[in-house]
Every structure is written in C-alpha cells, then in structure tokens.
Design goal:
The protein is an alpha/beta fold. The protein contains 13 helices and 15 strands. The strands form 4 sheets. The protein has a 7-stranded mixed β-sheet with strand order 2-10-9-8-7-3-4, with helices on both faces. The structure holds pyridoxal-5'-phosphate. The site of pyridoxal-5'-phosphate (PLP) has 14 residues, from helix 5.
Length: about 400
C-alpha cells in the first residue's frame, strides 16, 4: 500500500463542509494586515502604532518570566488566569462601576471571541437576534456565521432608537418569537461614534427585560472617552442578570494581546466556558497583562486620550474643509470613529477603488449593515493615521466624492 503524500484537495470538499462554512464563503475578514500601513488608512479600528506600550510590555514580560515563567508557559484554566481576573475585578469596580466576582468573569481571546462564544452558547441556526445597525463589522460577520435572523434597529446621535426597538420587540412578541439577545455599544458606537444617553440606557435595559431576553453590552472603547461626562455602564444599572458585558484590551494595551472578557451571571459564564476548548486563553499574555494593568493602564489611557482627541479634531476640521456640500458626519466623544453620510447620489463602495488608487482607504458603509445598505455612507477611523496625514487623506476622499457628485448630477 502506498501512502499519498502530496497535498491534494479532497474531490468533494464542498460537500464535506459544514452548513456554516458553506454559508460564510471563503473570504476571511482580516487579510493582508501587514499592507495596511502602505496607504493613508482610515479603514480599520487599529490603535495608533506609536502609542502601543511595547517597552513597558517588554519589561513586564521579563519580570513575569523571571518570577513565574513556569506557570505562565503552562496550560491554564478555562475561565482564564486568576491573576488577570482579579486585576479586572479591581479595574471594573474602579472605572466601570461594575461589581464582579471571579465567577462572573471569563477571559477570552479579545472581544471577538467573547461574542463568538456568546453566539455559540445562545444561538442556533435561524434564531432571531436584535442588533443596532449599523454596527461593528465583526459583529455583522459573526451573526451571519451562525445563521442568525438579524432584526436591525437604527442608531441616532443618542444611540439605539428605543422607539423602533419597542416596536420591533412587540412585532416579534406577536409572532411568538423571543430574540436570543439585543446587541449594542453604549459608548462611541462602532461605526457611528454615537454615545447612548443615560435615558436610552435605562430604556434599553427595561425593554430587554420586558422582552425576557439578554442585552449584550459591548464596551470595547470604554476607556477612550476624551470629552463629556462618563455615563454608567448598562451592566451597572442592571440588578437581575439581563446584561452581559464585554470588554477588551485591544484598544488600550494592544490587539496583539488578544485578551478580552465577558462579565455576566455565573450560570451563563459557566455555560460559555464549557464550550471553550483552548487550553486556557493566551495564558502567557494574561500573566503579562495581569501585571501591567494595575499600575500602567490609567497613565497609558491618559496619553491615548490626548492622541485620539487631537486626531478627531484634525479630522473634523479636514471634513469641514473638504467634504462636498450636503455631507454630514458625527462628532464622537471618544473611541476611534467618525461616520460620514454623503449626498444620496454617491456610492461609497463604487468610489472606493478610485480613492485607493490615490493612496487612501476608508470603510464603505455597507460593511456595517447586515442588509448591505448604507450605500452613501462611510466609516473613518482616525486612530491609525499620523496627524499630518489626516488632512491630505480627507482631501482625497472629498475630491473624489465631489467629482462623483458632479458626474451624477450631469455637470461637466
Ligand atoms: C465594538 C467592538 N467590539 C469588539 C471588538 C473586538 O476587538 P478584539 O477582538 O480585538 O478585542 C471591536 C474591534 O474593533 C469593536 O470595535
């Protein structure tokens, strides 16, 4: 008998694929990351490279290896490294007004895996979920991956539109459908930058409760507020286990850490944890983060707020200067994103290759909608581009948009 050693693709791979894999296709969300910096890139929610705390992490890593290298390089608990869980408990109580115990917390490989695991634990194919729309493109993709039926709720400058939400929940109730959860970003929403008002937070919580569903509060940008008064997390307003809170170190310590967390009722946390087969999430990184977090996070975040506030202001000034008449945009109090609405004749997906050819990129609006709507909208991240490239980049987008508009309106 001969062993076949050549790498061959099984003849009927398509027929061997799971329903999920067939449904999703073969275009991974993040590709060519090492090329992102070659353009003036407003496309991704990447942190400022120069601000990543590489030197601090290097010295903390050396300390961890010296002091407890054998534990840091070993397998870990499903729930995550207890030292990081304890550091998080202190941080969440200090900053987020969240009183958590160890059994409320699960460490995950970033917010992405947190959402994936929640979907795994809660959603079967064809189940209904409710989400802000537009929303984080990773969430759009993750919802699609599990074959969820997505009910979209619009977002305005005060966050999720609770009147539409109430109507949609009523419609679902009449149909006998209980959504598995409502997904929302209360702070500096991705992609609109909107912050949910206190009143909306309360109303959203009340609506989730009366619909007998869960509310997933994804607070990836919580630490990056540089204007306005902090508002209570919805989790801290909840007293009966309606809210599941998600966070991440990606936007502060760095996305390469791949560390995030879920905070929720112990029963749900155990259920989610039982589905997680990974030998303990990034045990080594979790040891480093546990030591870095208590003393270093706050000063680091102070520096980041300065950087991002300045970039937001530069981008707003450039938009005022270069966007064609009839364009509007949001002004966020924190986070990474500005959401631009161009005159209706403009198609941001069609216009993007021209902008890319001129060395600039942005995220076309349809990527942020489950239904692929938002044709005349786009998301700009000001987090990744150096100060002096913001105005030239926006100028290119404004010029291409103005040319598109002239063409659409038949002028020469
Ligand atoms: C709203 C939101 N949630 C979660 C994430 C997940 O990030 P990560 O998996 O890097 O923690 C992101 C990243 O862009 C985000 O914008």
């Amino acid at each position: 008998m001969t062993l076949q050693t050549e790498a061959t693709q099984p003849a009927g791979l398509e027929s061997l694929l799971s329903r999920r894999a067939r449904h999703v296709g073969s275009d991974p969300l993040l590709q060519g990351m090492d090329r992102v910096g070659q353009r003036i890139s407003f496309i991704f929610g990447f942190p400022d490279p120069a601000s990543l705390p590489a030197d601090e992490v290097a010295s903390t890593t050396a300390d961890v290896l010296r002091e407890r290298g054998r534990a840091a390089l070993q397998y870990g608990d499903n729930a995550g490294y207890s030292g990081l869980i304890d550091a998080l408990i202190a941080k969440l109580a200090r900053d987020q007004g969240i009183e958590a115990k160890r059994d409320n917390i699960l460490i995950t490989a970033g917010g992405s895996q947190a959402l994936d695991l929640l979907l795994d634990a809660l959603v079967d194919w064809g189940d209904t979920i409710v989400s802000e729309m537009p929303t984080w493109l990773g969430a759009v993709q993750a919802f699609r991956n599990v074959g969820a039926n997505i009910v979209s709720i619009p977002v305005d400058h005060q966050g999720i539109d609770v009147a539409v939400l109430a109507r949609e929940l009523g419609r679902l109730r009449d149909m006998g459908v209980t959504p598995k959860f409502i997904y929302a970003n209360a702070n500096f929403q991705n992609p609109t930058g909107a912050t949910m008002s206190r009143r909306r937070r309360q109303e959203l919580l009340a609506l989730a409760r009366s619909a007998n569903t869960l509310l997933i509060e994804d607070d990836a940008y919580f630490d990056l507020r540089y204007e306005g008064e902090p508002l209570p997390t919805i989790y801290s307003l909840d007293h009966d286990g309606t809210v599941v809170y998600m966070g991440t170190l990606s936007k502060t310590m760095g996305p390469g850490m791949r560390l995030g967390w879920i905070v929720g009722p112990p029963e749900l946390v155990r259920r989610v944890s039982a589905l997680k087969v990974d030998g303990g999430t990034n045990v080594f990184g979790a040891h480093v983060a546990a030591d870095w977090l208590p003393e270093r996070l706050l000063p680091h975040v102070q520096r980041l707020r300065e950087v991002y506030r300045r970039r937001r202001d530069l981008m707003i000034a450039a938009l005022e200067q270069h966007m064609p008449p009839g364009s509007t945009w949001t002004v966020p109090d924190g986070g990474f994103f500005i959401w631009v609405t161009l005159p209706e004749e403009i198609d941001t997906k069609r216009m993007h290759p021209q902008v890319q050819e001129l060395g600039v990129e942005y995220l076309p609006g349809p990527a942020c909608f489950a239904e692929g709507t938002g044709a005349n909208q786009l998301r700009l991240s000001y987090s990744f581009v150096e100060d002096d490239l913001i105005e030239p980049g926006i100028r290119v987008i404004g010029e291409v948009a103005a040319a598109e508009l002239r063409e659409a309106r038949g002028a020469v």
